[in-house]
Amino acid sequence: MPACRLITPDDAPVLAGLVRANRDFLAPWEPLHRDEYFTEAGQLVSIQAALSEHAQGRSLPCVMIDADGSVVGRVNLNNIVRGAFQSASLGYWLASAAGGRGLATAAVRDITRLAFAELGLHRLQADTLVHNVPSQRVLARNGFVRIGLAPRYLKIAGRWQDCVLHQLVSDPAEQGNGAERR
Ligand SMILES: CC(C)(COP(=O)(O)OP(=O)(O)OC[C@H]1O[C@@H](n2cnc3c(N)ncnc32)[C@H](O)[C@@H]1OP(=O)(O)O)[C@@H](O)C(=O)NCCC(=O)NCCS
After folding, report:
1. Could you tell me if 110 and 133 are in contact, meaning their C-beta atoms sit under 8 angstroms apart?
2. Whose CA is nearest to atom 20 of ligand 1?
3. Nearest ligand 1 atom to alpha carbon 95
4. Whose C-alpha lies nearest to ligand 1, atom 40?
5. How far, in Å, from the CA of 82 to the mean position of ligand 1?
6. Residue-range domain boundaries for the chain
7. Protein fold of 4-174
8. Along the 182 residues of the chain, how does pLDDT read in single tens digits?
9. How far apart are CA 42 and CA 70, in angstroms?
10. Measured in angstroms, how far is the CA atom of residue 136 from the centroid of ligand 1?
C-alpha cells in the first residue's frame, strides 16, 4: 500500500484532531498558525486552498497513511516550478504517536517517486532547521544530499532561523555534482 495519497476534503476532521493533539510537538518546526488552523473548518479551508493550487499544477498536497489506511500526517510538494528549473519544495510532518516506525521515510519515498515518475520533475529541495536531526535522517534515508546552509532562511516558530538545504535530483548519477560534503 502507498504510504501517501492525495489529500481530500474528507480528511479535515482527522487532520484537525491530529494538529490539535500534536500542537506542542509540531510547534518548534512550523510557522505560527492561527487558532482556526486547529479546527475542522480551518483544516477544510487549508485543504481547499491546497487542492486549488494542485489543480493549477503548483503543488501535490498529500496525507501520510499508516498500513491500515489511517491518516497520520502530511507530506507535500509545494512551489512546483517548471521551465528550466523543474523543481519543487518538499515538506512533511508525522503525528508523534506514529513516529519511529519508518512511516515518514516511506511517505517521502513515495511522493519522491511521484515527483519524478508522474510529474516529470528534475529536482526536489527540502529545508530543515539545523537541529532537526530526525528530519535530516528521513531525507538521508531517501538519498537527499546536503547542499548548503542558508542563514535566517525560514520564519519558524515565530523566528527567522537558519536552515540546512537538501536536494534530490531525478538522476542519481547527477546527485553528487556540486553537493556540499558533510
Ligand atoms: C521529522 C519527522 C517526520 C521524523 O519522524 P520519524 O518517526 O523519525 O521518521 P520515520 O517515520 O521515517 O521513522 C524513522 C525511524 O523509525 C525507525 N524505523 C523503525 N522501523 C522502520 C522501518 N520499517 N523503516 C524505516 N525506519 C524504521 C528508523 O530507524 C528511524 O529511527 P532513527 O532515525 O532513530 O534511526 C517527525 O519527527 C516530525 O514530524 N517532526 C515534526 C515536524 C517536522 O520536523 N517536520 C519536518 C520539517 S523539515
Report:
1. no
2. 101
3. 39
4. 93
5. 30
6. 4-174
7. Aminopeptidase (3.40.630)
8. 899 999 999 999 999 999 999 999 999 999 999 999 999 999 999 999 999 999 999 999 999 999 999 999 999 999 999 999 999 999 999 999 999 999 999 999 999 999 999 999 999 999 999 999 999 999 999 999 999 999 999 999 999 999 999 999 998 666 655 554 43
9. 20
10. 9
